[in-house]
Specification:
Blueprint lengths: L5 E8 L2 E11 L4 E6 L5 E6 H5 L5 E3 L7 H9 L14 H10 L5 H5 L12 H10 L3 H45 L3 H37 L1 H9 L1
Antiparallel strand pairs: 1-2, 1-5, 2-3, 3-4
């Protein structure tokens, strides 16, 4: 193990040993930054012994990763965070984000919970239901439900877009540092990662635009629904 390594141990679940991996970032000084499970899961710096809890420690070695100083800086930037979520923001999401910039969980993917599972609802269907609904109060309820779903979807997509932009800028800096040190191989790998992120942004942009158009379509009908409620 070394400073900036992504490490993990096997943890039990429901009395069964070695069921899932618990990930963290090795700080190189006998401490680890990880999502510590207490009453409220928190990103914290603990001793390696506390992190391991008597289990063997393994190192995950991604093909392309940030340099150790950047990995530690990213981990430290989230100390105190309390937004743990098993599906969207677990310990593996956190450690992968620190190490590679990708907030992902291979463990969840292995069980079929990929990004496709997080797709936005079929908003066109909801709009059609509102348009066909003859009872104003029910139509307003459907309207509020649709707007709430879209707000959640837009926030999630915008967060992914902003994160991709930040990561692309980070990989650009990594490429520049690598070139200064004469490491063209690392610079090339970093720039390839930047290109991938730019493609992701290009994929997300039309989704954001589509949501905006759907929200505008609903808002155009809002005043009509209000009038139906008061008449």
């Amino acid at each position: 193990m070394a400073r900036g390594d992504q490490i993990y141990v096997m943890r039990p679940l429901m009395g069964m040993d070695g069921v899932y991996e618990h990930h963290g970032i090795d700080c190189g000084d006998g401490t680890v930054i990880h999502y510590r499970k207490t009453d409220v899961a928190t990103v914290a710096r603990t001793s390696i012994a506390s992190f391991a809890n008597g289990q063997p420690i393994y190192v995950k070695r991604p093909a392309v990763a940030f340099i150790p100083d950047v990995v530690i800086e990213r981990a430290e930037s989230r100390l105190g965070e309390q937004t743990y979520n098993l599906v969207f923001n677990n310990c593996e999401h956190f450690a992968n984000w620190c190490k590679t910039g990708r907030s992902e969980s291979q463990q969840l993917a292995n069980y079929g919970f990929t990004h496709a599972w997080l797709n936005t609802p079929d908003s066109q269907r909801v709009i059609a239901s509102i348009a066909q609904e003859t009872e104003p109060a029910t139509a307003m309820g459907l309207f509020n439900q649709a707007m709430g779903n879209m707000a959640i979807a837009r926030t999630r997509l915008q967060s992914q877009y902003n994160q991709a932009q930040t990561e692309a800028n980070s990989w650009q800096r990594v490429a520049q540092v690598a070139l200064q040190r004469g490491r063209e191989d690392l610079a090339r790998a970093a720039l390839e990662r930047k290109v991938q992120l730019k493609r992701k942004m290009a994929d997300l942009q039309p989704q954001l635009e589509q949501l905006g158009a759907l929200e505008a379509s609903l808002n155009r009908n809002y005043s009509t629904l209000q009038q139906r409620l008061v008449t």
